């Protein structure tokens, strides 16, 4: 049995929904379909989810909602019309939207969650109706009905363990199941969304709950590429990745699959296949626990911008028990998440995502607080950093691969702000200036994928 | 004006003390002599400081002290006899020792401090007597008289700031000053020693207080070597180092100069020259703020054993604000100093000195506590690690040097447990298995010092 999830662009219009239908119909193992909200039809188009967020703000602040609501309705209605669906589903969606707008909410957060969730929820109902009208018996199942429970903690939505047992019941269903992605319900029956792109997570949770043989994730790319195609022209497609490789690549910018979607799949050891809705005949990329060697010693090169560093210098800091703890406590008190902590002698550097600061004044105040509370010799920051990640289970030796990577970067004149390699034997992490990102990725790609690979043992 | 400090082996017997006399007499700028306690005369000899520690324990526990006390007395008396000094100094030292043993102490720590300090204190009096008897007017000055105040904090003895102004008064003294190294006095007039080898620190404090032009540190090696001579046969001598290079090298095992001795010298920008008492004609090694380029891109390769790592794995830990802080807080609660914190994705590694654990049970309990309190997926340790450090202000580019270093290690088949490079642009730190230490140092030395150096820009 397969769980098959489709992204927003795969469901953006009638033509795409027909492709989805064909894909599901062609394989009787595709029992569960997880749908996103309609995405962009063309690059300047607006995703329905963005419209719903605008609508939520307008409702909350008492602004005029007519135009936004019409745009949302129009997206569904044009699809319904093109698909030639009957009046029933049209009435149902209109009823759903009206109910959503007129319901009372105990907080703006609750309202926003309900509005955002409706994008997927209405689309699932629409897709189920289309399947049924075209001779493929299908049943819309909501997270409420299935018992997909979640809780929101520190801004993150996590699935509750009892969900998996609840979902097992769905295997009794005879029809194809059409399930809305992106949200679950809290213990008090409120809809709570995952982070953006979270339909991937719903699919993975269903795959684990239903003990699927495969989790198919249909999107609009042929495969996961070995490097960013916007930087490297026509990078190699990756045929097969391990979970861990995917996790590490997704950390540094490989966003085809939502990184939180890996956890349930890993726990239940369910392979994931990323495929293209527009070219379903292509094999795409398989992600599983292990894989046989590929032709390349490394699998992918990822990068992610938006980082900064704060360095704290203090003579003989290594002799002060708890110095690092005090520094990190100050960061935690400010609710700042620190991603990496490279250390020199007498110096500790904190690498964090820059968007965590609300203002330049907040940043300045933090630096001063670190200086004073730690009695530091010097505290300074560096902005506009990118993290660069080389990943591959095929690395014969990390040190050989690292030497090769660094030689490539050195020849390109790229200065490393940070090198961090802990115990992971399948990846290396470098910090560079964001301005060097493209040159660095290009140099590494040339080294590892274009040349004949020969890493010294 | 120069401060000239002599190590224990430079003062181990009469022959060595005559060399010290010649060195001081030959240069009228050598106004202040800082002396250690008599060190080893031959490799199986016992340092007087070790005898004093034994004596302290025996006095404290009421054991028989006769043999130990005799050994201590014998060391001084044989020197006095060989140097043909008069009865006065002999009586003085016997009086000092008697007073030390019969005094009352408020704690064992106070007793131990007083006993240890006596090694240098008596030697300073002896050396001053010898100088005077041989026509070089000299005055023994104690930390009490000079006002060298210290405080002990968390097991570390630090100089108090008012000391520097007090020491300035010494410049009025006409004679050569002979000053005992290794200890200062607390605000309540108790003697408090620095950490072992701390006479270097006394010398540096005097150099700063007296605004010396040079701090000479006489020991038993011709110079500081570019690598451990016990591993690399006849390594290159380093002519000139910067303070920062010395600090980084001393962190990882270069122990010629006590690492805490650098701070006062750096603060007052006083150059340090390490010289050999047995070959005072050799230039030794100069340590100063800046230096002109040398022939090598890197200056030294250091290594230090006795480290271990504790790795903590938890899926999506980077999204948990304060995870690192919580981990480090647990370490601090156990009074464990963490030296480096390399991070992977979903994994943080703590590198620390192994000798901080009292027992294997303590270690096991800590791992369990980390696992439970952090709700970690996995906590595991790796023992017997060594840190390897490559240092050089002459690194044209860190990344080029790192690439070269890693290629050398890869070719030697050495696995890197950790790579850590923060913001220091003059050093790179690697973690390796302690068993690989010699091979790693040899490989790096061959690469950077024996071959023609050509680091890519």
UniProtKB/TrEMBL annotation, chains A, B:
Its EC number(s): 2.7.2.4
GO molecular function, one term: aspartate kinase activity
Gene Ontology BP annotations: diaminopimelate biosynthetic process; homoserine biosynthetic process; lysine biosynthetic process via diaminopimelate; threonine biosynthetic process
Pathway recorded for this protein: Amino-acid biosynthesis; L-threonine biosynthesis; L-threonine from L-aspartate: step 1/5; Amino-acid biosynthesis; L-lysine biosynthesis via DAP pathway; (S)-tetrahydrodipicolinate from L-aspartate: step 1/4; Amino-acid biosynthesis; L-methionine biosynthesis via de novo pathway; L-homoserine from L-aspartate: step 1/3
Pfam families (UniProt xref): AA_kinase (PF00696), ACT_9 (PF22468)
Ranges for domain ACT: 390-457
Gene3D superfamilies in alphabetical order: Acetylglutamate kinase-like, Aspartokinase, catalytic domain, VC0802-like
Entry binding sites for substrate: 49, 120
Positions that bind ATP: 5-8, 219-220
Gene Ontology cellular component terms for the protein in this record: cytosol
UniProt keyword list: Amino-acid biosynthesis, ATP-binding, Diaminopimelate biosynthesis, Kinase, Lysine biosynthesis, Nucleotide-binding, Transferase
Reactions the enzyme catalyzes: L-aspartate + ATP = 4-phospho-L-aspartate + ADP
EC category name: transferase
Tagged with keyword Metal-binding: no
Biological role: Catalyzes the phosphorylation of the beta-carboxyl group of aspartic acid with ATP to yield 4-phospho-L-aspartate, which is involved in the branched biosynthetic pathway leading to the biosynthesis of amino acids threonine, isoleucine and methionine.
UniProt record similarity statement: Belongs to the aspartokinase family.
Name of the protein this chain belongs to: Aspartokinase
């Amino acid at each position: 049995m397969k769980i098959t999830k489709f992204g927003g662009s795969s469901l953006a219009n009638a033509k795409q929904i027909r492709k989805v239908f064909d894909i599901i119909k062609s394989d009787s193992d595709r029992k569960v379909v997880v749908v996103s909200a309609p995405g962009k039809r063309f690059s300047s188009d607006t995703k329905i989810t963005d419209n719903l967020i605008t609508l939520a703000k307008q409702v909350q602040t008492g602004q005029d909602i007519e135009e936004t609501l019409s745009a949302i309705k129009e997206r569904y209605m044009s699809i319904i019309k093109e698909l030639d669906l009957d009046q029933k589903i049209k009435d149902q969606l209109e009823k759903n939207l009206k109910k959503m707008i007129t319901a009372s909410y105990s907080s703006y957060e609750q309202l926003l969650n309900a509005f955002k969730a409706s994008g997927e929820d209405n689309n699932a109902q629409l897709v189920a109706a289309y399947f049924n009208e075209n001779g493929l018996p299908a049943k819309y199942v909501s997270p409420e009905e299935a018992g997909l429970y979640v809780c929101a903690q520190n801004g993150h939505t996590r699935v509750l363990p009892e969900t998996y047992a609840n979902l097992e019941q769905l295997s009794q269903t005879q029809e194809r199941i059409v399930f809305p992605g992106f949200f679950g319900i809290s213990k008090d029956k409120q809809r709570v969304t995952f982070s953006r792109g979270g339909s991937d997570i719903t699919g993975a949770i269903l795959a684990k709950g239903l003990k699927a043989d495969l989790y198919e994730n249909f999107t609009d790319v042929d495969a996961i590429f070995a490097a960013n195609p916007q930087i490297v022209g026509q990078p190699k497609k990756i045929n097969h990745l391990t979970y861990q490789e995917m996790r590490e690549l997704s950390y540094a910018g490989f966003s085809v699959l939502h990184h939180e979607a890996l956890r349930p799949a890993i726990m239940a050891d369910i392979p994931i296949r990323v495929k293209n809705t527009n070219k379903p005949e292509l094999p795409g990329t398989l992600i599983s626990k292990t894989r046989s060697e590929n032709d390349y010693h490394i699998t992918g090169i990822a990068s992610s911008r938006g980082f900064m560093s704060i360095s704290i210098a203090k003579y003989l800091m290594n002799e002060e028990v708890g110095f690092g703890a005090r520094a990190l406590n100050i960061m935690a008190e400010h609710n700042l998440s620190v991603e990496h902590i490279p250390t020199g002698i007498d110096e500790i550097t904190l690498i964090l995502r820059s968007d965590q600061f609300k203002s330049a004044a907040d940043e300045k105040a933090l630096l001063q607080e670190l200086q004073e509370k730690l009695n530091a010799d010097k505290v300074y920051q560096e902005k506009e950093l990118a993290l660069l990640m080389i990943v591959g289970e095929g690395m014969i030796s990390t040190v050989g691969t690292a030497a090769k990577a660094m030689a490539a970067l050195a020849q390109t004149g790229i200065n490393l702000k940070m090198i961090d390699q802990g115990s992971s034997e399948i990846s290396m992490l470098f910090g560079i200036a964001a301005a060097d990102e493209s040159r660095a990725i290009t140099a590494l790609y040339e080294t590892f994928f274009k040349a004949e690979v020969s890493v010294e043992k």
